[in-house]
Write a structure and sequence with these properties.
- The complex is a heterodimer.
- The two termini of chain A are 29 Å apart.
- The longest helix of chain A is centred in the middle third of the chain and has 18 residues, at 167-184.
- In chain A, 26% of the residues lie in helices and 34% in strands.
- In chain A, the strands form five sheets. Chain A has a six-stranded mixed beta sheet with strand order 6-7-8-3-9-10, with helices on both faces. In chain A, strands 15-19-16-17-18 form a five-stranded antiparallel beta sheet. Chain A has a four-stranded antiparallel beta sheet with strand order 2-1-4-5, covered by helices on one side.
- Chain A is of the alpha+beta class.
- In chain A, a hairpin with a 6-residue loop joins strand 1 and strand 2 (17-26).
- Chain A has eight helices and 20 strands.
- In chain A, helix 3 crosses helix 4 and helix 3 (93-103) runs parallel beside helix 5.
- Chain B is mostly helical.
- The chains are: A alpha+beta, B mainly alpha.
- Chain A binds chain B through residues 47, 50, 52, 73, 76-77, 79-81, 83, 85-87, 89-90, 99-100, 103-104, 131-133, 147-148, 151, and chain B through 127, 129-130, 132-141, 143, 147, 150-151, 153, 229-231.
Chain lengths: 337, 231
């Protein structure tokens, strides 16, 4: 439905490359989670998808056709973005929810019905007559999502929509998004740094680092400075990450992103004899049950690392938050890009 | 102090009297100021939105010109317009020299940069997410600008007030292109200048007080129009 092709985008102020994507497609009915560090290019990607900015190179396509600036204005009625720190317009929550409906010429009675339904689904029906200065940050976020859903977009882009919300509000929002997708094929693209949430609800997780799509799943991404390669030796080089040094098999030098695929990490209670060059011990900090009977085990081993194991493995190892744990992975399993 | 007290007393008496000349001066002053403010803001506010919100070649140069024009001396504007409107000037055919239209023209030239520069500053002060949010909810350029204007309404009301305050108090250009013709182009400011030069300080002060009262009334009216709404 919505697609970026060969897009390069730079900051206007300093010319720094902020986005470099060969392709990024949002099919109808997709639930895409975009994850990455702050400054990785997530928000810029969403603004390009929202047709609010034009890429300096490459093109945005909608339903297979390149979007011209003239068409972008019309298509913005079908693609909506909720920013990371959304703002409400002057006036009440009701006026805010009705903004997009008025633009679409929807009559007041019908508009009120639509906005009240949207407010109820996001749990903000009690706030309808409040002004924006009477709301908390979390309430503003929920109102902004309700305002976007009220206009029934084909594509909804959300930038960290639950950063100020409590767990219950976040769960309610995800539930509504899923219902919308099932009911009418709404495509959702959500940028988040909360990986557990993203794994729990998104069908398709895409990691972004330094403006590029990461070839691996998004946990365990580290920005490092790779030392020069040792001459004539076949040993892995060590990249310092927080309090630990990760052995990496690479010829690259200088700044790079390291990715440790969570499925390539062996989890044990004690260190085991193996070929793994990277063996780190620490304590389990979180266990998150994801789809398909897998568990994301987060441990503090000097830095926070995430490993994906089966529920059976967690049970057999007796892992609970606070358990001692050892993570091991090969130097050749570490991706560099 | 007697001089000031006398002036205030005479101002009240003048206002309560049915002196046709005084009412004519007040009416002309209001007419000129309101027409000039409407034209200057009608052109200047959209120009300010354009300068603040759009990216086009020469935008910075245009902003510099507008900001410089804020300090344009009124007598110089009057002089230039005199050259344009005099019988031999390029606009002489209009026959506007020494008419109220000429005073309006001078006031518009003086108030336009105020409206443009201050509204540009007001729009630049609005959170850029407001425009983006309006656009992403489907607003075109005009509706998005309207959303921004709603956010900046207090600042924009101040722009209109400043423009009105400038034109109602303007004298240099009005004197040169209006000519201070009794019953035709005599405004409160030119009348104050005339009576002061004739030594009738009390009468001049009375007219000055009326001028102040007019400015105050227009300000109150604007404040009532913009409402008391919170953020």
């Amino acid at each position: 439905m919505l697609e970026l092709r060969a897009v390069r985008h730079r900051y206007q102020t300093n010319g720094r490359l902020v986005l470099d994507l060969d392709a990024f497609a949002v099919p109808p009915g997709a639930l895409i989670g975009i994850v990455g560090h702050n400054g990785s290019g997530k928000s810029t990607l969403l603004r390009l998808l929202a047709l609010l900015e034009r890429p300096m190179e490459g093109e945005v396509r909608f339903e297979g056709k390149p979007v011209t600036p003239r068409e972008a204005r019309a298509l913005r009625r079908r693609v909506t973005l909720v920013e990371q720190r959304p703002v409400l317009f002057r006036g009440t929550v009701r006026e805010n929810l009705g903004f997009g409906l008025r633009l679409r010429g929807i009559r007041r009675t019908e508009g009120n019905r639509i906005l009240e339904t949207a407010a109820e689904r996001l749990g903000v029906q009690g706030l309808l007559d409040r002004a924006r200065h009477e709301l908390s940050d979390g309430e503003v976020q929920r109102v902004a999502v309700a305002r976007a859903l009220a206009i029934s977009p084909d594509v909804l882009l959300l930038d960290e929509p639950v950063s100020s919300a409590d767990r219950a509000a976040a769960a309610a929002m995800y539930r509504v998004l899923d219902e919308e997708r099932r009911a009418r094929g709404l495509a959702v693209c959500l940028a988040s740094h909360q990986l557990e949430d993203a794994y729990r609800w998104a069908d398709d997780i895409r990691a972004i680092a330094e403006g590029r799509l990461s070839p691996v799943t998004p946990e365990n991404l580290f920005r490092v400075e790779l030392p020069p390669s040792p001459q004539g030796t076949g040993t892995a080089k060590l990249a310092r990450v927080g309090a630990i040094a990760i052995a990496v098999a690479t010829e690259r030098e200088g700044p790079a992103i390291l990715a440790v695929p969570p499925t390539d990490i062996f989890v044990s209670r004690q260190p085991l004899a193996s070929s793994a060059r990277n063996v780190f011990s620490g304590k389990v900090t979180r266990l998150a049950h994801a789809r398909a009977g897998t568990v994301h085990v987060t441990a503090d081993v000097g830095v926070e690392l995430v490993a994906v194991v089966t529920e059976d493995a967690v049970r057999e190892l007796g892992l609970v938050p606070g358990s001692p744990v050892t993570f091991a992975f090969k130097a050749s399993a570490v991706r560099v890009f | 102090m007697d001089f000031l007290g006398d002036g205030l007393r005479r101002a009240v008496q003048l206002f309560l009297s049915t002196d046709a000349e005084v009412y004519g001066i007040v009416f002309l002053t209001l007419k000129v100021a309101l027409v000039a403010t409407v034209i200057a803001c009608g052109l200047g506010l959209p120009a300010g939105f354009l300068l603040a919100g759009s990216r086009f070649w020469g935008r910075r140069a245009a902003l510099t010109v507008v900001n410089t024009a804020l300090a344009f001396p009124t007598v110089v504007v009057g002089l230039l317009l005199y050259g344009l409107l005099s019988r031999r000037g390029p606009l002489g055919g209009l026959g506007w020299l020494y008419t109220w239209q000429a005073i309006v023209l001078g006031d518009v030239v003086l108030a336009l940069p105020i409206a443009a520069a201050l509204s540009a500053a007001a729009v630049q002060g609005v959170d850029p997410r407001i425009r983006r949010t309006a656009e992403t909810l489907g607003a075109g350029a005009w509706r998005a600008a309207w959303a921004v204007a709603r956010e900046a309404r207090f600042a924009l009301a101040a722009v209109i007030t400043a423009a009105f305050g400038h034109v109602v108090a303007e004298i240099g250009s009005a004197m040169i292109v209006g000519g201070n013709v009794r019953g035709q182009t005599r405004t409160l400011t030119t009348a104050v200048a005339l009576y002061t030069s004739q030594g009738d300080f009390g009468f001049a002060l009375a007219l000055g007080v009326i001028l102040l009262a007019l400015a105050l009334l227009v300000n109150i009216a604007l404040q009532v129009l913009q409402g008391r709404g919170h953020a």
